[in-house]
Amino acid sequence: MSLSGSQTIYGNLIDGEWSTGGELAEDINPSDTRDVVGRSARASRQDADHAIASARQAFAGWSHSGPQQRHDLLKQIGDEILARKDEIGRLLSREEGKTLAEGVGETARAGQVFLFFAQEVLRLAGEKLGSVRPAIDIEITREPVGVIGIITPWNFPIALPSWKIAAALAYGNTVVWKPADLVPATANALASIIKRAGCPKGVFNLVNGRGSVVGEAILANPDVAAVTFTGSVQTGSRVAAACVSSFKKMQLEMGGKNPLIVLDDADLEVAVECAANGAFFSTGQRCTASSRLIVTEAIHDRFVAALVARMRSLSVGDALDPASHIGPVVDDNQLRQNLGYVDIGRTDGAKLAEGGELLDAGKPGHYMRPALFTEADNSMRIAREEIFGPVACVIRARDYEEALAIANDTAFGLSAGICTTSLKHASHFRRNAEAGIVMVNLPTAGIDFHVPFGGRKGSSYGPREQGRYAAEFYTTVKTAYVMAG
Ligand code: SIN
Fold first, then answer.
1. What average pLDDT does this structure show over 362-391?
2. 258-440, what's its fold?
3. DSSP secondary structure letters along 344-406
């Protein structure tokens, strides 16, 4: 199947076979809505159940496959993604709207994730302990969990699914993957690579479609042993309830309302760059976006003036135009939600210091200027609810202590950052920020592929993703007692 053209149909990969039947949904380029990237075949409930049955059947073989076979498969997938990062990154940017540099960078990260887990296959170790009883040995090993249901969002359409799929396969599980409706072309590219690399039939299945059909089938089917989900808090609670009632293992990554503290002693240039990047790059469509900028008194006005100047230097435009720093919003629903929050911010009494309006880019697309509010307080809706767009607010704080209290006063806890030249404050913040990820003199967004990812409070539930910590979710522990001799 080709990677472009409005006639392209992105099918479902079930039991090793592509199928393109069923209702078709248009995949629209958010930079230019006249451009139809392709059409995706929405799977039925029966298709989803077929994929789960196939994954269940394939589990017996794959869970007993050796490290060499698993390593070779993951390595081949990673190698092909890296070799084609420019082509796939371009497709991703055309479909999702992040800039070309971001699309290619994300694709390269996906390749690195597969190569990382190819190595992790070879490192999976157990433990051997003596028993408190005589002549008994104890061995503790990790075994695959079973069929993993993977439900992923549109904002990182290749890196994020890769860190779930690669880990699942590395540890001997089989997969049923439901990507977000808005990004079927990237999903198709990844699934094609996995199939071409020789993945045995049924070990990996791609099922496009609505959450209410495919997502619900994954949650309801007793043959799915575990579900890993990234998306909204609202859907996350639905996933959690369904997993608890059927005793499925679960891992949930939900939103963020990530604080970036800027202290009086910060390097102004560093702080402005961290805020601009963290709040507005990738069009603010990151769970790790810096949406609350908490700034102490003496630097406040200089920081706001410099950030507004930096925002004015950012060009918002077509994702595929190399001159664009920020692409469009992913679709019309998200654009309306963002503009709705700009109205809410004004009504609640914050001052719109910059942006927040629709932008005419000379073509039909979902463009808006990044918005910065000042004079916000932490009780306002723009400071408490995840917007998932290029909208940030500045909240004044008296000093470090008040800034930390504001940073932690949130229902979320994914990422938290501080800009300071004080070792004392940086060290205290690292220890006391209530978040899974802490950044010092860095944007709250921008993560490595080989270390744990996840948060606290309403942001995450269950074991961490990524790195060797991923083994916690994708394996189950067995304790064997063996009578010696
Ligand atoms: C996110 O921020 O939504 C995911 C983190 C990443 O992949 O950079």
1. 98
2. Aldehyde Dehydrogenase; Chain A, domain 2 (3.40.309)
3. HHHHTT-EEEE--SB---SSSS--B--EEEEEE-TTSHHHHS---SSEEEEEEESSHHHHHHH
